[in-house]
């Protein structure tokens, strides 16, 4: 797969083009070190964190990871897969990829992870996070993990849904994993409505942190979709892990993990605002808006909405009773936790940030703002100078 837009430079387009690009992304809607070159997927499973002492964090800048060379294909933005249309059947696999945190034309770019392990299906390109899987409550799922193309064992594990012991996808307790060259079909019932996390559970400290995570959404029967709906996966990264897995000249140990990159749907701000590569949320006045947050990282994050109070309506697949709901504007989300917030787009129309209020998580290295900042814009302001300025920072000409 060739890297997209290598020769395109900064995108140009009209306001209509921006809105079309944002809608096509599928996130919004009703539904410097001179490192050695690495082999495509070489290295032992425990290459990260060997016997040598971990390099001091102060000697490593996250942007150094960009200089580690690989010949991997680039990831693409996440797609949505309707499992109802497939009778609950899906085949997934893993592909070593290179991943852009910040695009070439965005402020602070390029900034890349030289190796990630991305989920892929026969119909979709590899992405970080993996494809958004959507299904209706009660559907029986058959998720086949095909490990034909990767040199490490993997599994498929999903939170929130009941399944048989051997389909839990946890080698430590089942004794089962999918070895290279093999495949296994996980039979799982979509028996719990809600927003759920899926990930690889083999050597989880590495595989989850290398990008093997995604969202499985189970809609209840008769689900009433809001006017606008978004799925936001938040993640903290220590870029030394990716660089070390790619053969870079840096040692890493999870005992010394110190995140230096913070993403929303795999991108750092301002790239998160890019309508083709990021995940901007475009609303109209009066819209009922629902955002599903999933924390695929190892740290807790305090997600804050600017100028819009909300209520938490779901947590880990459980519906919050109306009597227990109250207005909030900051919601803590722990590792693997899922929370769904809902609000009305009734503020003064403008461009607003949706960000982690651990403010050092809203940075790219030593630069602020950046990191874990998502964006929401009212459609009526997408022809303003201010909106165009934000798009320019993201590397997109509105």
TrEMBL record:
Q: Report domain Plastocyanin-like positions.
A: 127-221, 265-365
Where are the residues of the annotated region Disordered?
Answer: 31-88
Task: Provide the transmembrane region boundaries.
Answer: none
Q: Which Pfam families match?
A: Cu-oxidase_2, Cu-oxidase_3
- Recorded coiled-coil stretches: none
Instruction: Write down the superkingdom of origin.
Output: Archaea
List the CDD domains. CuRO_D2_2dMcoN_like
DNA-binding in keyword set: no
The UniProt GO MF terms for this protein read: metal ion binding; oxidoreductase activity
Where is composition skewed (Low complexity) in this entry? 31-62
Write out the entry's keywords from A to Z.
Answer: Copper, Metal-binding, Oxidoreductase
Q: What is this protein called?
A: Multicopper oxidase domain-containing protein
- Organism lineage: Archaea, Methanobacteriati, Methanobacteriota, Stenosarchaea group, Halobacteria
């Amino acid at each position: 797969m060739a890297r997209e837009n290598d020769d395109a430079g900064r995108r140009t387009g009209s306001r209509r083009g921006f809105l079309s690009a944002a809608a096509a992304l599928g996130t919004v809607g009703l539904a410097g070190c001179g490192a050695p070159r690495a082999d495509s997927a070489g290295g032992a499973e425990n290459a990260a964190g060997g016997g040598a002492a971990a390099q001091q964090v102060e000697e490593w800048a996250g942007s150094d990871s960009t200089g580690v060379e690989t010949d991997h294909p680039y990831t693409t933005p996440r797609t949505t897969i309707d499992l109802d249309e497939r009778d609950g059947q899906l085949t997934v696999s893993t592909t070593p990829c290179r991943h852009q945190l910040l695009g070439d034309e965005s402020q602070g770019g390029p900034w890349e992870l030289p190796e990630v392990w991305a989920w892929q299906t026969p119909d979709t390109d590899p992405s970080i996070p993996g494809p958004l899987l959507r299904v209706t409550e009660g559907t029986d799922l058959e998720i086949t993990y095909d490990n034909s193309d990767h040199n490490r064992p993997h599994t498929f594990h999903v939170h929130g849904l009941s399944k048989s012991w051997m389909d839990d996808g946890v080698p430590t307790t089942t004794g089962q994993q999918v070895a290279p060259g093999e495949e296994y079909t996980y039979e799982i019932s979509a028996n719990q409505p809600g927003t759920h996390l899926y990930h690889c559970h083999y050597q989880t400290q590495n595989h989850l942190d290398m990008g093997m995570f995604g969202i499985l959404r189970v809609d209840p029967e008769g689900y009433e979709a809001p006017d606008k709906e978004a799925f936001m996966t938040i993640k903290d990264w220590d870029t030394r892990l990716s660089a070390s897995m790619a053969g870079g000249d840096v040692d890493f140990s999870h005992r010394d993990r110190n995140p230096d990159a913070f993403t929303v749907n795999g991108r750092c701000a301002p790239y998160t605002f890019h309508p083709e590569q990021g995940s901007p949320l475009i609303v109209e006045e009066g819209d009922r808006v629902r955002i599903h947050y999933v924390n695929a990282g190892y740290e807790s994050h305090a997600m804050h909405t600017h100028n819009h109070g909300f209520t938490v309506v779901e947590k880990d697949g459980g519906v919050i009773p109306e009597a227990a709901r109250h207005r909030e504007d900051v919601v803590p989300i722990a590792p693997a936790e899922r929370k769904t917030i809902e609000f009305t787009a009734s503020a003064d129309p403008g461009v607003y940030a949706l960000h982690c209020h651990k403010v050092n998580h809203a940075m790219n290295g030593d630069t602020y703002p950046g990191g874990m900042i998502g964006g929401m814009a009212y459609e009526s302001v997408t022809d303003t100078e201010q909106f165009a300025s934000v798009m320019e920072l993201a590397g997109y000409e509105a």
